[in-house]
Amino acid sequence: MPDALYQRYLRALEIYQDHRAACSTCTNSRRCREGDRLWDAFTRSQDAYLERQRSQRGKPNSR
């Protein structure tokens, strides 16, 4: 079964990338309001996933 937190973080990235491809305002150094919101959602999801990975590191049977 896929990890739900990991899937959520990848989906947030996909949504941001789709927006970025269609948005004429967003660039590498600047984002529109919607792009900024989507990027923030992605980074929060990624941070949560990575924090959980760090907290599980070294624990036996942490899957």
Walkthrough of the structure:
With 63 residues, the protein is an all-alpha fold. The chain is built from 2 helices and no strands. The chain has helices at residues 4-22, 33-56. Helix 1 (4-22) runs antiparallel to helix 2 (33-56). The protein is elongated, with a radius of gyration of 15 Å. The N and C termini lie close together (11 Å). 6% of the residues are buried. The mean pLDDT is 90.
Count every beta strand, where a strand is a DSSP E run of 2 or more residues: 0
Coarse structural class: mainly alpha
Assembly type: single chain
Query: Percentage of helical residues?
Result: 55-70%
Distance between the termini: 11 Å
Largest sheet: none
Overall morphology: elongated
**Strand composition percent:** under 5%
**Taking all residues together, what is the mean pLDDT?**
90
Low-confidence region ranges: none
The ordered H/E elements are HH
Total helices: the number is: 2
Based on CA atoms alone, the radius of gyration comes out at 15 Å
